Amino acid sequence: MSRHAAAVLVLGSQTSIPIIPYRGEPYATILVRDEKAFAEMEHTGHCLSHSYRGATHIVKLSEPNEYPQLAANEYFCLTAARKCGLEVPPCRLAEDGMALVIDRFDLRTDGIYRGFEDFCALNARRTEEKHRGSYESSVIKRFAQFANSTHVYEDTEKLFILIALNSALRNGDAHLKNFGIVYDDVQGEARLAPVYDLVTTSVYLPKDTMALTLNGSTRWPTAKELRKLGETRAGGTPAKIRQILERIAEAIQETAREAHPYTRDHPRFAEIGQRMLQEWENGLNDSLRG
Asked: What is the pTM assigned to this prediction?
């Protein structure tokens, strides 16, 4: 499909919206213009940045031959993140499960785009070096160096939660480009970016491991190793870190209960869904409990 070809996405009972292909990695990813949101911005006198005019949402389309049901996979992973108390952009799953529509978290209501930097940029590394580094130094320590905010402790705790959640969900794609900071002014506060690109990769790659090292290894961490990370790098007390891991476990279990009926009612998701839930159970047992 060419960059300017048009298509239509149907989201349940909501009005169909036009979509324009933008780029793709495991997904075919596109930018989409929400007419209602766009009209509201123009009505209030706000203008979108010209280079992104009309780009209010990102739509991710699953590639069925390579990563089947990836959109539904990410939808449930993001649901678990939201239940953990992490900031997750509003998202909707298409009726057929083949597309995930996500609000752009870098677009303010006044039509201005917020600044965003991923951790490749913060570590002065090229995109091809996104798997080089550790969660201790290249993520948590680096964040502390750039987090110009009175909420640094709160955001560091959320960063630890996100790392632990990635481990439990078996997301081997949590590399440097999938963590970021956002800011409205280069001299102002820099906050941890909302969660994005969160999937259970081990469904497609059974021997997958972590994208970065933890305690010198890319193997999935034990609960003991995650507790040590939280206590030594995120500044939490042993009791606080145990409480956090318990909360993550509860969020995953609650999400799994919600995913079961979807798996039952959507036969095309059944195989992937069952494997996803089994990977979550493995993550709960190996990385959050004990």
From this structure: 0.85
